[in-house]
Amino acid sequence: MAAKCNTHWIHVLLKGERSKNGDVEESQDSGYLEEFARQSLNALHVPILEFEYKNLDRLVLSPLAAPPTRIGLILTSPRALQWVRLALDYNRESCSGTGTRPVDTSFIDSKLVFVVGPKTAAECSAKLQMDCNTNSMESGNSEELTKVIVENCQSRDRDKIKLIYPKSSLAGETVESALASLPNITLEAFIAYQTTAIADMRETIVAKIGDYIMKQSEHKWTGAELGHSASSICENLELVVNLIFFSPSGVNGFCQLVDLDDLTKTLVTKYLKKKPVELTMRNSCIGKTTELALRQHNLDVYCVSSKPNAQVLVEELVVLSKCQL
User: Where is the secretion signal located (predicted)?
Assistant: First the structure.
């Protein structure tokens, strides 16, 4: 007997970047796929941006002239942190055999290392062997981070502070605008990595979702993620594809190359035309800034995760889905 379930979800994580040579970065899903699986939710990952590092010679750390200047870093993503690692390697190679001393990270004041999110904080410790400002770890975007920076630097108004800010080519001027009024801060902001939308994004998304649909068709559609037995067959099925965006740059890149209505029609035509399945597209995101980017492109928003981590996102999606049952 067929179960009385009619909705099957697939969450598509439009997250992560790949390098120009096609390699996808390590830890691309940051535990998101594992967390979805732990909650018996179906998810797949599609990288939608690609990157290329720039200006590796811009990392200059040395004792500055009196009065003493405190040196700090602003790292708004793991990508910016990776730039620091590469810049340090580049500097060591450049100094090798020249008699020039390489960059000394001991000049960095850990209380002035500001990061967005717990993942960047953890990688800062693990990969750079560097502590960071603990108050900044809970910030979910650049706007929240600047509030922490301003508060900390205002309390140290007697110190001269130099903050090095390696940023994405798609980053706005949020940090620069917020710090412009603080007289004790010198901000050195520059493009650390060029980020562009992956040219074959649409084809990749269609192929990934299509592959998932074909596999589900082979094993019968089930409603396990809604609390039904995994072996129960659903009739009158609605397939909900929930596109999850992680940054404004991801939203903008997606909207440049993908028309949502066209994507829906393509999926139906290629994979669902002869199946008793109705397709619904949803858009979810991490944080208010990404939500704003979606709304600026006139896209409805289903769920906004309040924090940039896997557990919170999944919990909020589960709560929202239960409210709608």
Answer: none
